Amino acid sequence: MPNSSTWRIVRSASRRMAAACGLALVAGTLHAGDAPANSCDGGAAFPVGLVAEQPATGRFVKTDRGYMVPYQAKIPGTDATFEMVPVPGGTFRIGSPAGEIDRNDDEGPQFTVRVEPFWMGKCEVTWGQYLPYKETYDLWVELSASKDHPQIAKSFDDVDAVTTPTPLWEPSFNYAHGEDPRLPAATITQFAAKQYTKWLSGLTGEVYRLPTEAEWEYACRAGTTTVWHFGEDPKLLDEYAWYDGNSGEKTHLVGQKKPNPWGLHDMHGNVMEWVLDQYDAESYARFDGKEVAALDAVRWPDKWGPRILRGGSYYGLANELRSAARFQSVSDSEWSSKDPNAPPHSAWWYDNEETLEVGFRIIRPLDPPKADQRARFWDPDFEDLYRILKARFEAKGGGLLKANKRLAEAMRAAAENRTKD
Q1: Torsions phi, psi of 161, nearest 5?
Q2: How far apart are CA 309 and CA 326, in angstroms?
């Protein structure tokens, strides 16, 4: 472990590197002995969340390129922060055994999944973290007023572009449980969640995305094989989850309940969480008796729905919060039945009471996908959605911004100008 003077030098260099990359480390997250160095370009220095030496304290995951550690980062161009915790690689049996109480048929047959290491959001994405992305629509309007601003995407097919969420038409619904920035963001479509991860990736230079269904269950179980990650006794749910029995029928601030063994909060309850997969009741049967990689196990969407949500919600019964429980979305039109902007309905927001239970959580793979493979994690995933979104933007029904570090500069400048005004 380096001495204190060495650590001060390393920490100072680390923070300068992080600032240059557009990813600000928050004081107190990394501890003496971690000796981190941060890089956005994959050079000789360590990326954020990786350190050279085994930490003296705290959770870490050993890999062949260093030690993965928890980190807290600021979203560039904003004051919002988020926390990520390391999840080790390994194998597990997805689904539930035939004898599990309250088991559903779509939770089997179990098969073995091989998972690569990743960092996962310590908590569900909050309003405080999501609102800067929501406000990119206002930013798009501002930048559009200036001629040929470099952050305005010229084509819907611009590979760096992110879509800007249209304004809420009924905020009293979306914020029905309050506007505290520590509440989980809800009523978010899967497409909006995916675009949020693309936006965050462009700002930070690191690759963030939604987890696959297998990655989510693996992280939730955290090495356990019990009904819930804390065991078999439903009486313990009050200690770990917001659900039908204690929530008062509303969401609660993230991170208030005990975490699972890997340091993840609210994996059971609070809001259901989007994963990448399309729902298929028979999807597990494809791999019966096999061992497959997590990305090979994905049922990649090719139509509107249904899509998969995991974890149960504040409104869920105890059995609906089981680690293996699977939920399916209904059609977007049904979850957006009150939206006056129809057809088509918003691609970013829902307005059905059931969707107050719908949120998401992000991951960052240790091995990020190559540039030409990232679109499937972020962009429209079937032709009808692509056509509808493209037509909407051509009719000026939304904005497109280039997601890179210059966007963070534009966000910061716009915020400063608004303050002056």
Answers
A1: -80, 145
A2: 7
Per the CB < 8 A criterion, the answer to whether 199 and 139 are in contact is: no
pTM: 0.89
Flag the least confident range among 14-18, 167-171, 373-377. 14-18
Residue 198 confidence (pLDDT): 98
Which helix (H) or strand (E) segment is 358 a member of?
Answer: strand 358-359
Is residue 2 within 8 Å of residue 11, measured between CB atoms? no
Asked if 203 contacts 75 with a C-beta cutoff of 8 angstroms, the reply is: yes
Distance set, CA 401 to CA 28, 45, 404 (Å): 33, 30, 9
pLDDT in tens, 37-80: 333 334 447 899 999 999 999 999 999 999 999 999 999 999 99
Indicate the helix (H) or strand (E) that contains 219.
helix 213-221
Interior angle at CA 68, CA 60 and CA 26, nearest 5: 95
Pair 164, 196: CB distance under 8 Å = no
Pairwise CA distance, residues 421 & 417, whole Å: 6
Mean per-residue pLDDT of the chain: 88
For residue 55, cis peptide bond before it (omega within 30 degrees of 0): no
Q: How far apart are CA 320 and CA 316, in angstroms?
A: 6
Q: What pLDDT band is residue 343 in, cutting at 50, 70 and 90? A: low
Q: Tokens 């569900």 appear where? A: 124
The strand pairing partners of 365, in sequence order, are 118
For the chain, give me the number of helices (H) and strands (E)?
11, 17
Q: Which residues have CB under 8 Å from 77's CB, separation 6+? A: 132, 203, 407, 408, 409, 410, 411, 412, 415
Answer whether 268's CB lies under 8 Å from 315's CB: no
Terminal Cα distance for the chain, rounded:
50
Residue 86 contacts residue 119 (beta carbons within 8 Å) = yes
Integer-rounded Cα radius of gyration of the chain: 21
What pLDDT, on a 0 to 100 scale, did the predictor assign at position 46?
82
What are the tokens at 74?
């600021």
